[in-house]
Amino acid sequence: MLKEVTQFFKSFQFAKGLLITLAAVTAIAISYFAGKIEMGASLAFGVLLTSVPDIPGNTKHKLYGVLAAIIFAVINIILINLTYHHYILISITLLVLVFFYAYISVYGFRASLVSLSGLLAIAISMAHLRTGHDIILHAGVTALGGLWYLLLSTAYSLINPTQFSMQLLSEVMRLTADYLNTRAELILVDDSERKELLKKLFQLQTELNEKHESLRSVLLNARIKSGSTNYIKKQLMVFIELIDMLELAIANPMNYKTIDKNFKKDNKNIIKSFAAISQNIAIELEILSVKISKKNGSIRGADLDTLLATAHNDIENYKASVDVEQNRDKILLLRNLYDYIEQQAEKIKNIKRVLTITLKQTEKEQKSPNKKLLTPQDYSINTLKENLSFKSPIFKHSLRLTITVLAGFLIGSLFSIQNAYWIILTIIVIMRPNYGLTKERSKQRIAGTLIGGLIAVAIIVLTQNIYVYIAIILVSMTMGFSFIQQNYKASATFITLNIVFVYALLQPNAFEVIQYRIIDTLIGAGLAIVANYTLWPAWEFYYHNDLLIKSIESNINYLKEVKSLYNNKEDKSTSYVISRKEAFLAIGNLMATFQRMAQEPKSKQKNFMVLYEAVVIQHTFLSSTAAIGTYIQNHHTSSASSDFNDYIDEIIKNLNESIQLLKGNHIATSDSLKHREAINQIKSHYAELIKKRQEEISLGNLVITEETRSRLKEAHLVIDLLQYLFSLSEKLKKLVGTN
C-alpha cells in the first residue's frame, strides 16, 4: 500500500494535477492583488480547458492541440453568451458546436481531448453569463489563462522531460510482470480455474498493447526531437527488451492439458520449478519497475542462474528415469519450456545491464529512429468525409451526444433547475460511443458524487472554518485532476468536494449546492444511458466483423514476414517489426471489442460465443506464428524447403477465404491435397533425422551432438506449428462460414 501511494505522488498524473492547481491558484492570486478578482475565474477557466489536451508526445501536435483548445474556448464563450437568451439561437448554437466538437474526435486520442475541452467550454460558458464588452473581455482573459498554463507546462517539461516516459516504462514493466506471473499460475492451477486466469491474460495483453503504442510514440518522438541522450537511449533499449519478452511469452503458448496429463501427477516438482523461475522473473521485473527512476546504481535480485541450473538438472534426472524413445515428446516439451524461461531470464539480465552501465554510442545506436514504427494519424479532410455516415460509430456518437445535450438543456430550462449546466457537463463527461463504457462511467460518476457530497456534509457540519475550506479546495482540485484518467470515481469524489467548498465560500447555503449537484448528476447520467441505448446504439456486434478481418489480415502479413525471415536468414527487418506490431495491435483491438460486448445487455450480445472462439483462434494463431519467428531469430536454422513455403501458402489461402466469407462473398469449395503432400515431405525429413539418431545410438554414440539436437528440435517444432496453424486456419474458416 505504501509503495502504491509513493508511486502515485511521483507520477506524471499527480504532477499534472499539481500543475493545474498551481496555474489556477497563481492566476487567481495575481488577479486578487491586481484588484481584478473577477478576472480570476476567467483565468482559471482558461487553465482548466487548456490542460485537457496537454498530453506528452509529438511536441508540434501537443502545441497545436493546446492552441486549438484556447481558440475553441474563445469561440464558445462569445457564441454562448451572445445567443443564450434567444431559445432558437442557443439551440442552433448548441447543435452546431456539440456536433462539431464530438465529430473531430475521429482524428484520434489527442483530437478527442481537444474535443472534450471544446465541449467542456460550452457547459462552463453557461455558468456565469456576460453581456456587452464583458463577453470579449471574458474571452480574452480566458485565452490568457490558457497561455499561462501552456507556459508553466512547457517550463515543467523542460525541467523534467523524462518523467512521463519513465512512468510509462515502469507501468509496462509491472504489466509484463503480471502477465508472466499469470502464465506461471496457469501452469499450477487446476483446469477448472483456468478460464478466469485466461480472461485476465487477454486483458493484460490488451493493456500492454495500448501501453506499448503510447510508449513507442513518446520515446521515438523524444529521440527525434532531442537526439540520442543517454537516458532516452536506455529507455528505448529497455523498451525493446520488454517487447521481446511479450513476444517470447506469446510465442510459447502452453498446452495446459498436455502438461497436466504428463507431469501434474507423477512429476509435479519439475513443473513447479519452471513456474517458480517464471514467478521470480516476474518479481525481478516488479523490482526493476520501481528502480527504473534511478539512473545508476546496482540492482540486485534473485539468483536466476541457480534456479535455471536446478530446472536443467530436473530435466536430466527425468530423462535418466524414463525410456527416451518412448518419451521423446515429453522431453522436447520440457526442453522447449526450459529454453523459453532461459531466454526470459536473459532479457532480465539485459535490462539490468542497460540500467546499471554508462552506454557508449555505437554506429548502430546513433541511427535515427525509424518513423515507420509510429502509427501515423491522418489529419486530412478525407477522414471527416469518410466518417460522415451511419457506419461510423463516431458519427452516430456525435448525433447522439448533440441530441442528449439539447435534451438536458431543455429539461434544465423548462424546470428552472439551478446550475442546470451541470446536467450538460455530466452528459459530456460520461457519455461515450459505446453503451458499456457510458454505463460504467455513469455508475462511477454517481457513486463519486454521492461520496463527495456525504463527505462535504460531514465537514460542513463539523466546521465552518474558511481556511479549512481553502485547504480542501486546493487538495481536492489537485487530487481530482490527478485521478481523472486512472480512477474516475475517485476523481468525481474530489471534484464534487472542490465544487461544494468553492460555493461554500461564495454563498451561505452549501447544502443546497450538494442537493442540486446530486440531482443534476442523476439527470445527466440517466439521459446519457437512455440515449446510448435508444439513439443509433453502437452495439459491438455491428463492428466485430471488421475488427476480425483486420486481425486476420494482420496475421497474414506477419506470417508472410516470418516466411521471408526463414527463407532469407537475415536479421529481422523493419517490415517484420511493423507487421508484428500491427498483428499485436489488431488482436488487442479484437479482444477489446469482446470485453466491451461483455458489458452490454445480454440481448445485444449477438454471436458472443462465436466472437469468443474467433478471439481465441486468432490469439492462438498469433502465438504460433510468433513461436516460429522467435525460434528463427534465436537459433541457427536449416534452409527453408519448398514444402515449408507451400504449406504456408495453403494456410494463407485459408485465411484469405475466411476474409471473403466474413465479407459475405462466396468461395469455391476445393479439396487441395497440396498441404498434405507438403507436410508429409516435412515429416519424412524428420523421420530420417530420428532414424539417423537411432543408428548413432545403436553404434554406441549415446551423447547427442548439438547440431543433431538442434535439427531434431527445429524439425519437430516446424511440423507441430505448421500443422497447428493449418488446423487453426481451417477451424476459423469453418467458424465464420457457418455464422
Structure characterization notes:
The protein has helices at 2-10, 12-33, 38-51, 59-83, 87-103, 109-125, 133-159, 163-188, 194-226, 230-250, 256-264, 268-291, 304-321, 328-356, 381-386, 393-414, 421-430, 435-462, 466-482, 488-506, 510-534, 544-568, 574-598, 608-634, 642-662, 674-698, 706-737. By secondary structure, the protein is mainly α. It has 4 domains: 1-160, no CATH class; 164-371, Up-down Bundle (Methane Monooxygenase Hydroxylase, Chain G, domain 1), CATH 1.20.58; 390-536; 540-737, Methane Monooxygenase Hydroxylase, Chain G, domain 1 (Up-down Bundle), CATH 1.20.58. Helix 8 packs antiparallel against helix 12 (268-291).
Q: Estimate nothing, just give the exact number of structural domains.
A: 4
What order do the helices and strands follow? HHHHHHHHHHHHHHHHHHHHHHHHHHH
Biggest β-sheet description = none
What's the CATH architecture of the largest domain? Answer: Up-down Bundle
Structural class: mainly alpha
Give the proportion of residues in helices: over 70%
Q: What name is given to the CATH topology of the largest domain?
A: Methane Monooxygenase Hydroxylase, Chain G, domain 1
CATH class descriptor of the largest domain: Mainly Alpha
Number of strands: 0
Strand proportion, as a percent range, falls in under 5%
Indicate the radius of gyration in whole angstroms.
Answer: 30 Å
**Can you tell me the overall shape?**
elongated
* SS element count, helices: 27
Mean pLDDT: 84
Family: Belongs to the YccS/YhfK family.
Pfam family, one: FUSC_2
Domain Integral membrane protein YccS N-terminal: 74-342
Domain Integral membrane bound transporter: 409-530
